[in-house]
Design a protein that fits this description.
The chain is mainly alpha-helical. The protein has a single domain (57-381), classed as Na+/H+ antiporter like fold (Up-down Bundle), CATH 1.20.1530. The protein has 19 helices and no strands. Helix 4 (56-76) runs antiparallel to helix 13 (255-282). It is globular.
Length: 385
């Protein structure tokens, strides 16, 4: 199975790279290609990729991919950058995200029929956004820079902000190995490791007799990430919060290291993300979408896309200086992406009683989000002069 998975991944990667320029102008983004590829090659269709939620390979891939993504997300958001233009992204994160979390939980309870704790968990899993599925919005010069900044900062930070809620709720429901005070200790230790390791390495790197050669500069940040990962695994600290904290600390204390790491690190992260999305797609089957999810699940998924985020950001941006057209675009473009994919896999592997139902709903929302947001981003971007 690992060999066929590797063969499938390598083949799709070559196809994605070769058609990337043309696909960038259509709804067929790289992530969409891997999701569809996993779906077609998975057990429900061709059966080339045979994976199950409990497979050690799935668990390892999800861990590495999420660690890499959170580390890279943290690297994108230095404290100095946030101070320079924080007001509008702050509204989206500190008001819009909790509102979306809460409204999703209410809809999950009253529409999908989940108990309150499970509804809150589903809200936390679906809280992060990922503009990779709306690349035309954040990547086109005609789109106002203020709007692009709001969406970029929001998506760069909300993965890490949603994570503690996911972990605590999983622990409360009995799906984490640690719960209560032990879980708090793991979270606190992860944050401590994420702060201290980058600070020590940056201080060492600036000593006169210690200096990396120019071609090895990108490996300084990579080595920090690997060291944080290793220490967290050895000490049982929470490696995800360790990764996110380490990224922010390294970008803030050593901005030159952030610049050196940027291209190399993002390519490594992208590879891990695409591999995880391929596995996620392979776990989705036709019966999964059309038989296992009832009408209430479909209604829930549609409401999450067309009502939850628009309502949350409508309230969050009330009274702001953001023009109406940009406000409407931000309200619509809250695509569910990679963080929700991996958080959904964590829930599926947790063993809590409603894990399968929650994963079904997460998967449906992500699939519908990819279709809806990837097919409208170019059209909306062209509305800006």
């Amino acid at each position: 199975m690992p060999h066929l998975l590797l063969l499938s991944f390598a083949t799709l990667l070559i196809v994605a790279v070769l058609i990337s320029e043309r696909a960038h102008r259509t709804v067929l983004s790289t992530a969409v290609l891997f999701l569809l590829g996993g779906f077609v090659l998975g057990d429900g269709m061709l059966g080339v990729i045979d994976v199950a939620p409990g497979d050690p390979l799935v668990d390892l891939l999800a861990q590495l991919a999420l660690f890499s993504v959170l580390f890279t997300d943290g690297m994108r958001v230095a404290i100095a950058d946030l101070r320079s233009a924080w007001r509008l992204p702050g509204r989206a994160l500190l008001l819009g995200m909790p509102l979306a979390f809460a409204i999703t939980a209410v809809v999950a309870h009253y529409v999908a029929g989940l108990p309150w704790l499970e509804s809150l968990l589903l809200g936390a899993v679906l809280a992060p956004t990922d503009p990779v599925f709306a690349a035309a919005i954040v990547g086109r010069e005609e789109v106002p820079g203020r709007l692009r900044h709001v969406l970029n900062v929001e998506s760069g930070v909300n993965d890490g902000l949603a994570l503690p809620a996911v972990l605590v709720l999983l622990g409360t429901l009995g799906g984490e190995r640690a719960s209560g005070w032990v879980l708090f200790e793991e979270i606190a230790l992860g944050v401590l490791v994420g702060v201290m390791v980058p600070l020590v390495v940056v201080r060492l790197e600036r000593l006169p007799f210690l200096k990396a050669t120019e071609n090895l500069q990108p490996l300084v940040a990579v080595s920090v990430g690997l060291l944080v990962l290793a220490i967290c695994l050895v000490t049982h600290a929470n490696l995800y919060l360790g990764a996110f904290t380490a990224g922010i600390t390294l970008a803030s204390a050593g901005p030159e290291l952030k610049n050196e790491f940027e291209r190399f690190g993002e390519l490594v992260t992208e590879l891990l993300k695409l591999a995880a999305i391929l596995v996620f797609g392979a776990l989705i089957t036709p019966s999964f979408l059309f038989e296992d999810i009832g009408l209430s699940g479909w209604i829930f998924a549609v409401l999450v896309l067309v009502a939850v985020r628009p309502l949350a950001l409508l309230l969050a941006f009330a009274g702001s200086a953001l023009p109406r057209r940009e406000r409407v675009a931000a309200m619509w473009f809250g695509p569910k992406g990679f963080a929700s994919v991996v958080y959904g896999l964590l829930v599926l592997q947790s063993g809590i009683p409603p894990a399968d139902q929650i994963f079904h709903l997460v998967a449906l929302v992500i699939v519908l989000s990819i279709i809806a947001h990837s097919s409208t981003d170019v059209a909306v971007a062209r509305q800006f002069p």
